[in-house]
Design goal:
mainly alpha, 8 helices, about 150 residues
């Protein structure tokens, strides 16, 4: 749940609000869960769907008169910034669309294509296509960042 929020929201307050919403949605939908053997996949699916809905909702109504603030640093992000490659990867993942962010998060968690397809609600072949496209986008972003140095 924390990783999904981290990938979807840069601001600490937004991540915390999203985490609370995920927990609420999990609590609300638990009685309807049919397969208790795949609780982990269900938690990922609820986390991802809740986060995507929240991003879409906030992007429709958010109006800013000032330039957005830089992302706040949490202990987790502070630790990650020690490793420049991980920071570059996280920044590149922020640039992907919401579904691709979710797929890459699950891929980095070493979930199988079947598990990812089940959680996201797309076909296994679509997962493969999206992962390959996202990898190429990430590769291009890494090349850009290396050339800028």
């Amino acid at each position: 749940m924390h990783k999904v929020s981290l990938v979807c929201f840069r601001n600490k307050t937004d991540r915390e609000d999203n985490l609370q919403e995920i927990i609420y949605q999990l609590w609300k939908s638990f009685p309807g869960i049919k397969n208790h053997n795949s609780i982990g996949s269900w938690i990922y699916a609820v986390s991802i769907n809740t986060s995507i809905s929240r991003v879409k909702k906030s992007s429709r109504i958010e109006y800013r008169e000032t330039i957005p603030e830089l992302p706040e640093k949490s202990n987790f992000i502070d630790e990650m910034s020690m490793n420049e490659s991980l920071q570059l990867l996280l920044n590149a993942i922020y640039k992907l669309d919401e579904v691709d962010k979710s797929i890459m998060l699950l891929y980095l968690e070493e979930k199988s294509y079947d598990e990812i397809a089940q959680i996201i609600g797309v076909s296994k072949s679509n997962v493969g296509v999206r992962i390959n496209r996202a990898k190429e986008i990430l590769r291009q972003n890494f090349k850009k960042s290396n050339h800028e140095k």
